[in-house]
Each structure stands twice: as C-alpha cells, then as structure tokens.
Known about the structure:
Helix content is 68%, strand content 12%. The chain is of the alpha+beta class. The chain is elongated and about 100 Å long. The chain crosses the membrane at residues 33-56, 62-83, 90-111, 117-136, 143-164, 170-190. This is Diguanylate cyclase.
Amino acid sequence: xxxxxxxxxxxxxxxxxxxxxxxxxxxxxxxxxxxxxxxxxxxxxxxxxxxxxxxxxxxxxxxxxxxxxxxxxxxxxxxxxxxxxxxxxxxxxxxxxxxxxxxxxxxxxxxxxxxxxxxxxxxxxxxxxxxxxxxxxxxxxxxxxxxxxxxxxxxxxxxxxxxxxxxxxxxxxxxxxxxxxxxxxxxxxxxxxxxxxxxxxxxxxxxxxxxxxxxxxxxxxxxxxxxxxxxxxxxxxxxxxxxxxxxxxxxxxxxxxxxxxxxxxxxxxxxxxxxxxxxxxxxxxxxxxxxxxxxxxxxxxxxxxxxxxxxxxxxxxxxxxxxxxxxxxxxxxxxxxxxxxxxxxxxxxxxxxxxxxxxxxxxxxxxxxxxxxxxxx
Length: 377
C-alpha cells in the first residue's frame, strides 16, 4: 500500500511540475484547441441543423437550437481574438476553456432535457467524454466541472423528463462520466510523459555531457540574456579558466584520463559556485563562470584560490598526478558593458594570468582602461 501511495504522490508531483514549468506551452496548446474546438462545434451544429429535418421525421429546431448557433459564433470570435493575442498566461487560457465548456454543456443540457422531454439524451454522454479531454487543465478542476455539469443535468432530467426516459439518461451520463475520468487521466499521463521527454532532450541540448555543465551556446545565451535584461549598469563577474598542460595529460596518460580531469573540474565548479551562476564549458579545456549580482575582487580571489586548491587536491588524490588551472576574471560594480567587451576583458585577464605562470589567476576591475591584480594560489 505504501508503494502504491508513493507512486500516486510521485505522479501528482510530476503533474504539478508540468503545469508550473510548461505554462507557456500549455497556454499555447489551449488557445489552439479552443479555436479549433469552437470552429468544429460551429460546423457540427450547422450540419446537425441542416441534416436533422431529413434524418428525423417531424423534427424541427427549438428556440435553444437556434440560440446555440449565434452563441457558437460568438465563441469562435472570442477564441480567435485571444488566439491572436501575443501573450496569454496558462491561467487565462484555462479560464477561457472553462467558459467554452460551460457554454457548450449549458446548451447541451437545455437541448437534451428541456427541449426534448420524451426523447433520450443524445449529446450529454458524448460531451462528458469529448469536451474535458480536449484541453490541458488540472485533473481536479476538470473533475469538479464535470461533477457540476452532471448534477445540473440530473436535476434537469428529474424535473423535465418523463421518468422512464430519465432513468436511462442518468445511467448513460453517469457511465460517460466514469469513462471520462479514465480518459482524462490517461491523456494527462501521456502529456506529462511527453513533457518529461522534451525536458530531457532540452537538458541534453544545453549541457556538456562530459563535464555536466552548460555547453558553449547555452552559457553564452544565458549571459547575454542577463545583460540584456539589466538595460543599464550591472553587478556581475566573468571568470575564464583553462587547465594547465592539458594536452600533456592527454598525450602521456591517455584521453580517458583527460576526460576524467575535465569531469572532475566541472564538478568542482558546480560545488564552488552558486546554482544561480552560469557555469559552462567553452570548448576543449576552457571553462567559464558568470556570477550574477554583486561581487568584489576579494570574493573572486577567494573563489579562484578555492577552485585551484580543490583541483590540485582531487586530481592528486583520485588519479595520482598534479593538475592546475589558470584563471582570468573581470569584475563589474554598477557599470555598463557589452557582451563582447565582457568576454574580451575576461580573455585578456586569462592571457595575463598565463603570462605570469602556471596555476595563477588575474582579476581585473572594469574601468574602461582596466586595472589589474594578479596572484598565485
């Protein structure tokens, strides 16, 4: 029983993450489905009104049938208007879908109950299964709405329909409600799995598989996005790093050992810096770390020493040889800088560190003409 409960709780958590993290896709999907559903409803209604007199002898449209037509036209216009809007949140899209469902079910109940008191309900069982399965909404909300529609339908059946017909209508609609619960859960399960698959491939596309940090494209895009969002002076720092004599490690100890050192270095960076910082592999044995928010040269010096010390310690303990890295850093405090300038300044700092000797770091404060500070661990 505990295993079953844990699986249910895990599934609920996955669904919560899905609605939280995939909100933009959910909004877009709901708007597309809303537009398509309203158009389909209008087309089906027109066909029914046109064909029913030929298929059902003595049938003629009631007031509710005729009122349903302009209401469906308004739903189409309403859906098209919101579909063309540039930004609609997931919550707004769900509200629009609830409005659509409410209008459809309201007319279905009126037509199946009040306008046809002696005829079996045709549309309610179909709508119970079809309509809720269309949209991306939390299961609790969908089930609550279905129960409300079902209770209203049962009340109308008991009030307006003859008993021998009403009992079959209630039975068929309750059965449809049960089927709908199964269908909705299955569809939501598949949507969550599709989301997880997309997130998995997205993660693979932005991460360097060997070092477990961001790849070059993802890290540069993250930095550029941060700088563009500030729209003015920024507090940040960029560290450029590369491993000393990495080619020699590959040549003398093999590429497998070189890969282990890269993996070790990536883990050290992830442990040393914050989860909000951008940590990436720039290519080969080159890495970068972009610190968002306030920082000082003293903090950068502390981080540089920590990285170099941990690299030397872990490689020596795990693989039995020495390894080091050179680091160049640029620090900005309430200053404006372009993306290109930032990388150029950090690259110059790295070049200066290498000129000082192996295992050194250089920290520059951006002042147009940068001041310099160099050090050894």
